[in-house]
Structures are given as C-alpha cells and as structure tokens.
C-alpha cells in the first residue's frame, strides 16, 4: 500500500493492522446546536465544494430539504419543533446531520472490501470509492444511518470531513461557511475545551442539561455536538442516546466469521484424512456375481407377474 | 485590474503550493496508489483569485472568486468556485446559503445571454442584435419624449418633466453604474424614477 | 428397461439426462456461490473475488447465481422428492452409518434408491437453500435495500452467513460421499451404476429395477431373446 | 444603519423586531451570536412567527403584524413610569425640553389640522414656539405642559400593558418581561441595539414604526453609542448606495431634493433650504446645502452649468406632486398615461402589490425594456404560463426588449452596505454570450439619444446634448471615472482670498472631503456624502487594512464609510455634556480639552465645545427629535393605526381605517377586503434559503427550498382540515394563489381585543422562471397602498382566506 499506509489508523477488511506510526493531530468538527440558525449554508457549501448537485424536490410541509441524506447530499439540517414541558416554551431544535467520523467506525468494521473504508491518523473516516464494491454493508455497520449507496455507480458516499481541504490545512467547507460560527473546526483537544465554554454559557442561560455529545459507545467522534438538552439527544431528530455498533454486526463480523471458517476447514480436513486412512468402500467381485442372481430372479418374478 | 494581490492572497498562493507538497508527502499525490484516491486533490491549487462582494443582501460579505486559468492571453477566465473572504471584517470567510451557492448564480441556466425582442401580440421572444435593439429603443424614447415632454406648467413655470416614460433602477448595480444611470435618466427629465429601496 | 446386460458388465440406469443436467447446474451454482460468498465473507478470501472480475462484480453476480441455484434446485426437488420420504428402514440403516464409513455394508438392511444419509442431505439442502434465498433477498441492497429496515438487514446478514456455513458443510459431506463410495460418480456422469454397486448399496432398488425388466445387449448368441411383461 | 455590522458585537441587548436578521442577513447576524457568546448579551425577538432568529433568542414574544407602534410606545411609557430613562441624555441631546406651539393637539386618533377629503394634514401647528431671538423656547425642567416631554407622556398614556395586549395580542407577562429587559439599558453602561428591516417599513405607517424605536433608543441614551443605534438591515447589496445617489423620484445624490413647481428658480429653491439654527451655536450642517447642490449641477452639466444659468437648475425636472413613486407610476400606467418603462435589474411583476393590477398596467405600455442578468417574470409578463401567468399574449400590444447584462462576477465598482461602507470589487470573468455591462448600455442609449437630438432637434434637448460626458471611451465609461466624479474634483483653481499666491484647491485635483466643496462652481461633486472615496491618494473604497485599534469593530481603514469615513453616526452622543464617554468601556470619541478625538471620525466639528454644540449636527436644533415637527406627514408623534386590511378595528379610534394620512387611490380603496370574507391576518417574508426572485434561478438554492408554501398554525389547519404538505388555496380580495401547507407550532393564533386572530405566513421567492418549482408570490394578494411618508407598500399586513385544495393542476 506504499508510503501513505503509515497515515492510516484503520483500513477496512484487512487482517494486518496498519503501522499507524505517524502521529497526526486528531481533528474534530464541533456543531453548536444552540448557535445554529438552520440556514443551510453548510448544505450549500458542501454541494458546491464537492461539485455535487441534487434533484430539485418538493415541499412536504417541512423545512428539511432534501428530505434525507443522499449519495449527493452528505449533510442535512433536520428541524424539530419541540414544546419544552418545563418552560412551556417552543424550541426549534435544528441539527446538522452527517457522518460523525467515529473513533470506532461501524462502517469500517462491516466493510468486506479491503481498503474501501479507511481512517486516517487525524481521525477522518473516508470512503475510497475505487475500492468500494457497493455491497451496502457499511449502511448496516453505521450506528447513525449515514452512508448512502448511489444507484448510478453503486458506490457508498458520505461526508469526507473535506479530507481534501484538511490535507492542505484548511477547514471543511461547511465549517468555513457557517455564518454564526455554530460549526467550528480544530484539533479535537482544543474543540473539547472550547465546547466547555459553550456549555457554561448555555447553563448560565438556564439550560441546566446542556452538554457535549461525544458518544463513548463508538469511542468518541470527530464530529461533536453542543446540545442544550444533552440528557435527551433523541429530541434532536432522533440522535441516538448511546450509539454503538449493533451487536448483530459485531457477532456477524466477529465470531461467525472465525467459527464458520473453522467449521468448514475442519470438515474438509476430516474428509481428507478419512479418505486416506479409511478402508475403501468398493464393490467386490462376489457382489457383482450376486447381483446377477438377484437380477435373474427378480426379472423372472417380473415375467410371472 | 482583474485581481489585486493582497497580503492574504499571497499567503494563500504560497499556501496552496505548500498544500500541494504536503499532499505529495502524505503519499496522496501518486495516482497509481489505490488509496491515494482516498483524498481528492485540492481543486483550487493554481486558480486565479479575484475579490468581489456578494451581490445579495446588504451585509455585503467579501467573496473570493476562483477563476480558471492564470490570466494568460489564451486562457479564457471562468469562475469555477466562490468562497468567503477570510480577510473581510464582516463575514470573516463565512457565507450564507445564498452566498455559498453564488457559483450557480453566475452559471445559471436561465441567465440572459442575447438581446431578445417581443413584438405586439407575439407569443415568443426572438433574438435581435444590440444595434437593432438600442436604435429601436432610442427611437421609441425620443418620439414619446418629444410628444409628451412638459416644458412649463399651466402657470407658465418651467418644469421640464417627462412623465410618460419611467425608469426602475437596480439596487444591485454599482454606485458607478447608478450615477451614470442617474445622469442619463435625469437629463431626460424623467420623474417616474425609483429603485428597490422603495419597496 | 433400465437393467442392461452388456458384453463386459451389467449396468443399472440411475439418473436420466435431465436430472443429471439439473444436478450439475445446481452443483456449479453452489460452487460459484461458495467462492463468491467466501470472498465477501472473510478478508482472507477476498482474493477469490478476482475469479468474478473484482469485488463489485462479485457483489453483483452472487445474488443472481443464487437465483439460478434456486430455480435448478427447485426442479431437482420435484424430480427427487418422491424417493426421499423417510422410512423405518432408513432409521435402521442410519444406526450402521459407522460401518458404512469404515467400508463394511454386509450387515445393512436392504434399502431403496436412497439411504438415510442421502435423504438427510436432500432435506438439509432444501431447507438451507430456502433460508439462504430468503435472507439473500433481504441483503440484496441494490434492489431490496429500501424494502427492509437496517435492523432486519443486519439479522439477514448474520443468518445468511450461518446458513452458508451449514450449506458448505452439507456440500462437503455430499461430495466426499461421492468420492468415498466408489462407483458412485458414474451415476451423475454416465447416469448408470454397475449391478454390483446397486446390489451393495441399494439392493431393494436393484430388485425393483430388475423386476421392471432386463435388456440383454450381448451380441452372442445371435438369436434375440427378449423378455418382458408383454409376453 | 447608524452603526455597523461589526459594531453589534459591542452590545448588551439585541432587539430584533420588524426584521428577521438570522434568516435575511445570516453573516451579519454572526455579530449577534458573538455578542451573546463573548459578553453574555441577550437577544429578544418580537415577531408574529417564531422565526429562525427566534430559535436562538433568549426571549421571544409574538405580536400581531402592524401593531408595533402600540408595542413600542408602550415600552416608552414603561420606561418613563419606572424612571428608566437616561435623563441627562434626554435633556441635553433630544428636543424633550422644547416647547411646542399653542394649538397642537391629538384626539380620536387624529392630530390637529386633518383634512379628510385630502387624506392629509395642515401641519402648521406641529411646530416649536420660537422666542424673540428666533430660537426655540425650552424648559430644562421638562415641566412645561407644552414641552415635548410632557406632550409625549400625555400622548402615550393610553398604551398600558393591558392595552398593548389587547391590540398586539402579546401576552402581558411576556410583554412586561421584555419591557424590563429593555429598560435595563437606560443605564449609562448598558446599550441596546435595534435590528429591523422590512418588517417595519412595509406598512402604511412604516416610517412611524421606525421612529417609535428611535424615540425609545433616545430615551435610553443608546444612539451614538458603540453597540447601540438604529440598525436598518436593508435589502439589496447596494440599496443603500442607490438611495444615497438618489435614484428615486424626488431625490438628488446625497439626499438633496428636486425642486417643486413652487420653486420657480434657484433662489426660491434655496430659500426653503436655509436651515437656520434653531438653537444658539448649532452647526445645522445643511447650511452647506448650496455648495453640495451647485457642485452636483457642475458634475451633471459641467461647463454648461454656469452662475448665469443658475448652474442649469432649470434643466432638472420639477415635481408637481410629492413624488412619482412606483405606486403612483403604476396607477398612471393602469390609466394608460405611461408609454415607456425600463426595468434595470428589477422584477416588478413579482415585487409590486396587486399583481393583477401590475399585469394590467404593463399591458398598457407601448414599450418595456428589461435589463437583467436573469430571465425575469417581468420580461415575460405577456407570456401565457397557464395558472402561473394567465394572460392572452395576442391581446398584449406592448413591445418588449430583454437586454442581457453582466452580473457581480463580471462587474467592477463599489457597493454600499447597510453600515454605509463603500466597498470596491473586481471582475473575475467576462459576461456570458452577448451580455453587456449596464454602463455600456446606458452610455449607448445616451449617445444615440444625443445624436438624434443633435440631428433632429426636439423637445428641450439642452440637458441631453449638454450632459457632461468626459469619459475616456464615451461609448463605455469605466467605473473609476464615475467614482472620481462622485468624489468630486476641482473645476477651477481656488486661491486664498487673503493671499492669492496660496493655492487652496488646484484645478483638476480630486477633493479630499466635502468640506472643500464650493457654491461658486469652482468644484464639481456627483454625490457629496461620498467625498473622500477616491481622492488624490487613490481609491479609498479598495482599502483592505484589517487593523482595528481598540478592538472597537470600526475597521476604519477597511474600504470607505460615508460620510467622511465615519463608522458610527452621531458618535458625539457617546460622550456626556463634558465630552467624557458615558461608558468608559465604550469610549468612541472624547473631548481632550481642545478637540474631539478617539477611535472614530468625530460626528461634529473637531473644535466644537461639548457644552455649546449639540451632537445631532444635521438638525438645526442640534438635538434629536422626539417630536418630529412638520417633517412627518402623519404626525409629529407615532400613533397606533391598524393596517388597511385588519382582522380587528382600531380600538383607539374605531372610525379610522388604516393610516389616515396614507395615500390610497380610489380603485385600490375599493379593492380592499374585509375580515368577514377574509378572516386571516397574512404577512409576507423572505426565507434564508433564498434571495428575493434571484436564487430560484440558482440550482443549489432551488434544492434547499424547492417549492412555494404558506405557513399556518396547527389550530387553523385543524379548523380547516388542512393536511401538512397538502395543497391550499389562499385568496385575498385581489387574487388567489396555490401553495403547499406548512403546518407548524411556530405560528400560534393570537387573542386581540378578545378575538382569535389566525396568522398566515406567505414567503415570496417563487415565480415561473428559474430552476425552482413554478409557484406564486404574495404580491398576487397584497393591497396597493403605501406608507404615508415614503409610499412603501403594505406587504406585511393584509387579509386572506385559506381553503384546502387539490392544487393548481385542478384549477
């Protein structure tokens, strides 16, 4: 895989762990939902930077346009109108949805194609279209329902955290565009520190349960949220409370894989050995002769009938 | 002046160069490497930067337009990307959903590209030359002005107004265009003169 | 007229051409499915996708081969099911399976066209193919990705994987039996077995076939001696 | 804006009312989120809808559209009643102590001097009482019953919290919370900023909406302060510039005004523009009016403008009516009195009220010329687009020209943002196809007309053939040439009267500031307030220095800000009577004993002593006006009037419909609807995904908000059995539209005067050209009536009915 293999922390469907020797800064995007005005500049900037376009859709009585993530729309504002039972106030919770760039990526775990999904040392989880076979396993692996398979080229697509911009030292397009600074980009460490100040500000404004969303179930993420109601993430258009890779997927990609291989190997080996050591199960001359008698006898019976 | 080289732009140009070399160092440069495909090559390296102002609202965010070509004679400039200007004190590089999509405005399929004319009762436009269009318009204007120009009112006061033709100016044009428009329109005595500030 | 007396030997017709064709279509599908499936199942076997022109093609072909398998096996099922109903004698026979594995069949009860083990293989394959096809549909993302919830698909995946392993085990048994019990392969290649083979492994079946009648194809003596219920 | 976008970061309290900053100006709104994050500022949003601005607000309260004056006067009353005003500021910097003439009064919703037939006031009684010295009589104690302060107290007494709730539908407790938060900023070290836009202007009393808040800001001492001020967010990128340069019926660049029929000659014209100070020592800056006017005339007609011909004053048209605003023009057009019309980057078919009337009027034109970079609906008003533009082309005899123009990316020049910054930009490509720059088109038209008049003669050719046209390429003047014209230049050398050898101004040089302009024709200046934008030092608008001494947010070396590169207007008012900053943390300029100095260009003569000279130098009073005198058509004080189409009667003056001084034409009055047939209170607005009718031509934005919809409450939806995302038909007395229904919790029915009022929200971005789905605009429904002072149409408050429908297909 050449020199750059040293820049990978993880590579899909490979037994050899990448050397992971280059110690890069872990980067992170912080989405401060309390600052977000749902203007969709991030969606716009994403489409423009990645030279992607979407079908012009319809209005279905909501502000979510397009209505879901697609192979072209890698990020999406999800709008939720919620009446806070405590304060009685209406809250318009607007969450920018997209790849969370998990430290322990379920998509990568599920992927059967070597090198189709990689994780760089800086934490970015990237799809390598050239190696993608379009099986859709990543969709099952992802705890956030993010990857989308193109019906045109049958490859999986999702936010790259603008790996092309980051590789030349620039912030992702959405983070740069965000008018209110709800999306910021930096090293994960710095972002966490900054997020604390935001949480403090929110608490001072009466959001007692304000907090950071950096779910440990997936080893933390490289896209984090600041939420006014960190105790109820599901309020924000169903953000998982405690996301983790599905047990079923773990089992499928874990035990099953090895046990299955073992069973088959054992069976084959047994047959081989048996074939060598066991007494031949063959027809003897005697049995050939007895067969003739049986045939005559039965044929005769047949005639009398 | 097509574009001016500002401090940041210089840095930026250099930055792109460094960026490029960084990519190579990381090994994302070699196309022969399967995984090199993982990272898309930075698409702005070597483009020409031009500073402009977002034409939409009056926050007037600074934008940088990235143009095809290096300005050499045979390279026809074309805008391939537009992004916020980090130097601009107001937007500091950010852009709203409209500003972020300015590229599609510049290249909109429904931009006007040729002069068109529609005659009385006709169902469709047809293309005409600039010469025809302007001659015809000037003629229509003069005939109407000569016919309906009011030099003095009933009391014999000089009023020099032309009320039968009106002009709506665009509050998205530059001050310079606005002033030129003002001179031309007022010199004709037009009073039905307005712009979006009214609505 | 299925028992033939030939110059050198006596043979019994076991499988007509149409059955053999079906069997081999099924067999080849199974092998291709095993290879392509394995490529997607374990990274170490991903190289097998090379046989199908790369990962993407493997992903695209595998389910279609599955469809072929289902079709051909369905016909095979119709052709064979009537010989595969379980009988008491099969149970007795199964008790002596150890002797079979060690090459002794002297003390086995006389059995018909199929023995217990063969019937078990038949029914297992039927069941597993149905399971594999069902779960296969659930995880056939290109066409059915939208028809099942992600959670359902996750279960589809694991069940498909487990069923596939089971299937491979059955297939290994089946193929090995074919090799180990000498003279068996002929049944699926030329379609006939020797009288001795029939006598040793499926005596009851041999009796039935013989009762149907015997064709004497020997050239000498020249007089034609035909036998049969006609007379 | 009195301040600037970047200055908003200095505030303690942001009140967004009559606007929706987050959606309409997201990048400017950044400075609100900065103020919140950096200094714990609070954000209040008052709006009929829970907008995206409200989604990040600390406090939101609903209000019925068109009742802002009642709300704001109520807040002023609260501040006075609770002694929460900045007393020193009010006493010294406003006209609160000024005594008003005997005979001024207000009763039953009318001020003295109303003429019902004319729908207009005789405003002579709305004036100060002048003393023998010719100056206004004042009472520093504010006790005189006829002083402005007492008159104001009396005028607003009726706006109690209960009355406000009754009129506005704003729950009393929420309202009082807001009053309390606002009142806090009366402290010297607390400021509030007001961010407003078309939510206040697009009413039949728009100007008074804004005055109400301005008065409140003055009472709180927040004008002239960092982080304070009245901040009009404004619409288009250069709407400020086009207003500055006077592309309006009655204007001359720099807010000079055209003469009227009464002003028969230049001296008469100037006599009404004397602007003699009304208090001792005041600057009354308009005393320089003649210098600006003469210099403007010189820039128009150059050598042809001479002292002998009054600098060609007569070549300018004179007004027989207050102005030929668009409503009047389309009224005349509908009567067949207009033959030719130009739309330069303007789409009236969707922008002007009562689309039916607009279509009918355009159909009466002989010719229509549209100059636009995009294919507008207006250029196709004659095209049969089925339900989306239901016309018969064969019946429309108008000749239509569509001239392709360049867009921003291909243009060079300057734009003025709402903070009055003139910013230069450069072109990055050539216009597509045969498209041309507007400059080329306007020059080509002028050259052709000039040639025709020279050849054929005709009606009064002088102003055309003599138009000053000193451009390098007369066929296509370059932006820098016009920029230099607007800045002003010296026509003939000016020497020191005492020592003629000393040259003060050298012929041909650019002036540095409007201070150098002369009224004798020795200087020319296209737009005096822009003086300093392109001096001998070069193009000041192209400056890109990002330094910001004192971190004030002024960025004084970035581009150029009119006037005189001043970043905060009235900044003298940021210091107390002795010239010391009210709030040391917010020092802007201070009196150092001999001169004013600080972070910004002083908005006062550098040597003007703080005790003597008032901070509001453009007013002859030297102070700000709580009492507007005769300068507002509809009253020296704001007063609550219902919209012309309102679900409830005016509880203060039930007989009065709308703003009594607003002009409305006969047919349009007849076309108004009533709440029995059209029970719901509708309002129109922009969405953040779109910009007017431009971005529907932009693929990405069409994706982000693809289709026309209206917003209604869950209650109304239930009442009318309307499904989320289903089709509805919305109709007013003037027309109807089909839209998808956005059923939302963000709009709630209000209780006004005991009656349930349902709000219907109608965004305005759809038409029948472009990438987005075909749709309609609110202007198919809106009434043809404008503000009493500036004729801005009442787009924000009108009546509609809403019914479930099967959509346009079935119509």
Automatic annotation (TrEMBL), chain A:
<dbReference type="Pfam" id="PF13247">
    <property type="entry name" value="Fer4_11"/>
</dbReference>
<feature type="binding site">
    <location>
        <position position="135"/>
    </location>
    <ligand>
        <name>[4Fe-4S] cluster 4</name>
    </ligand>
</feature>
<dbReference type="InterPro" id="IPR017900">
    <property type="entry name" value="4Fe4S_Fe_S_CS"/>
</dbReference>
<dbReference type="Pfam" id="PF12800">
    <property type="entry name" value="Fer4_4"/>
</dbReference>
<keyword id="KW-0249">Electron transport</keyword>
<feature type="binding site">
    <location>
        <position position="159"/>
    </location>
    <ligand>
        <name>[4Fe-4S] cluster 2</name>
    </ligand>
</feature>
<feature type="domain" description="4Fe-4S ferredoxin-type">
    <location>
        <begin position="123"/>
        <end position="152"/>
    </location>
</feature>
<keyword id="KW-1133">Transmembrane helix</keyword>
<feature type="binding site">
    <location>
        <position position="39"/>
    </location>
    <ligand>
        <name>[4Fe-4S] cluster 1</name>
    </ligand>
</feature>
<dbReference type="InterPro" id="IPR015246">
    <property type="entry name" value="Formate_DH_TM"/>
</dbReference>
<feature type="binding site">
    <location>
        <position position="42"/>
    </location>
    <ligand>
        <name>[4Fe-4S] cluster 1</name>
    </ligand>
</feature>
<feature type="binding site">
    <location>
        <position position="138"/>
    </location>
    <ligand>
        <name>[4Fe-4S] cluster 4</name>
    </ligand>
</feature>
<dbReference type="Pfam" id="PF09163">
    <property type="entry name" value="Form-deh_trans"/>
</dbReference>
<feature type="domain" description="4Fe-4S ferredoxin-type">
    <location>
        <begin position="27"/>
        <end position="57"/>
    </location>
</feature>
<keyword id="KW-0677">Repeat</keyword>
<feature type="binding site">
    <location>
        <position position="178"/>
    </location>
    <ligand>
        <name>[4Fe-4S] cluster 1</name>
    </ligand>
</feature>
<feature type="binding site">
    <location>
        <position position="107"/>
    </location>
    <ligand>
        <name>[4Fe-4S] cluster 3</name>
    </ligand>
</feature>
<feature type="binding site">
    <location>
        <position position="99"/>
    </location>
    <ligand>
        <name>[4Fe-4S] cluster 3</name>
    </ligand>
</feature>
<dbReference type="GO" id="GO:0045333">
    <property type="term" value="P:cellular respiration"/>
</dbReference>
<keyword id="KW-0812">Transmembrane</keyword>
<dbReference type="InterPro" id="IPR038384">
    <property type="entry name" value="Formate_DH_C_sf"/>
</dbReference>
<feature type="binding site">
    <location>
        <position position="162"/>
    </location>
    <ligand>
        <name>[4Fe-4S] cluster 2</name>
    </ligand>
</feature>
<feature type="binding site">
    <location>
        <position position="102"/>
    </location>
    <ligand>
        <name>[4Fe-4S] cluster 3</name>
    </ligand>
</feature>
<feature type="domain" description="4Fe-4S ferredoxin-type">
    <location>
        <begin position="90"/>
        <end position="122"/>
    </location>
</feature>
<keyword id="KW-0813">Transport</keyword>
<keyword id="KW-0408">Iron</keyword>
<feature type="binding site">
    <location>
        <position position="36"/>
    </location>
    <ligand>
        <name>[4Fe-4S] cluster 1</name>
    </ligand>
</feature>
<feature type="transmembrane region" description="Helical">
    <location>
        <begin position="258"/>
        <end position="277"/>
    </location>
</feature>
<keyword id="KW-0004">4Fe-4S</keyword>
<keyword id="KW-0479">Metal-binding</keyword>
<dbReference type="GO" id="GO:0046872">
    <property type="term" value="F:metal ion binding"/>
</dbReference>
<dbReference type="GO" id="GO:0015944">
    <property type="term" value="P:formate oxidation"/>
</dbReference>
<dbReference type="InterPro" id="IPR014603">
    <property type="entry name" value="Formate_DH_Fe-S_su"/>
</dbReference>
<feature type="binding site">
    <location>
        <position position="46"/>
    </location>
    <ligand>
        <name>[4Fe-4S] cluster 2</name>
    </ligand>
</feature>
<dbReference type="GO" id="GO:0051539">
    <property type="term" value="F:4 iron, 4 sulfur cluster binding"/>
</dbReference>
<feature type="binding site">
    <location>
        <position position="132"/>
    </location>
    <ligand>
        <name>[4Fe-4S] cluster 4</name>
    </ligand>
</feature>
<protein>
    <submittedName>
        <fullName>Formate dehydrogenase subunit beta</fullName>
    </submittedName>
</protein>
<feature type="binding site">
    <location>
        <position position="142"/>
    </location>
    <ligand>
        <name>[4Fe-4S] cluster 3</name>
    </ligand>
</feature>
<keyword id="KW-0472">Membrane</keyword>
<feature type="binding site">
    <location>
        <position position="111"/>
    </location>
    <ligand>
        <name>[4Fe-4S] cluster 4</name>
    </ligand>
</feature>
<dbReference type="InterPro" id="IPR051555">
    <property type="entry name" value="FDH_Electron_Transfer_Unit"/>
</dbReference>
<feature type="binding site">
    <location>
        <position position="174"/>
    </location>
    <ligand>
        <name>[4Fe-4S] cluster 2</name>
    </ligand>
</feature>
